[in-house]
Amino acid sequence: MRRSPRSQDGFTLIEMLAATTLLAVIFGIVMNSMGQAMQAYARDEVKTRMGLMARSLLVDVSSTSLVPGFTSGQESGIDWRLECIAMSEQSGIQLLHLKLTLRHASVVQNFSTLRVQQLKSGRRS
Fold first, then answer.
1. Which terminus of the chain faces fewer neighbouring Cβ atoms within 10 Å, N or C?
2. With a cut of 50, which residues of the chain have pLDDT below it?
C-alpha cells in the first residue's frame, strides 16, 4: 500500500509558526501582568512603610510639648516634614493641627491629626 502524496503525518511549517506566535503573545501578556503586579506590590510596600513611620512619628511627638512651626528630618530613606498649626486657645488649653508629609522617590503621603495640649503658665498669647 502506498500513501497518497497528499497525506502527511505531523504539522506543517505554517501551523508550527502560528502556534509559536500564539505562545509568544501569551507569554508576553503573562510577563507584562507579572511586571505590573510586582510594581504594585513595591508601591504598596512603600506606602505601608510610610504609614507605619507616620504613626511612629506622631506617637513620638505626642509625648513632647509642641510649639507651632515646622520640623523635618529623614529616616530609612523617607523624608518627612511635620507642620504644627495652633488652631485655638481657651482656658489654658491649646488645639493644634498636625500635618505630616512623607516623601519617598515619587510617592508622597499626607497625614493629619488634631492634638490638645495644656498650656504652661506664662505661655498664653
1. N
2. 124-125
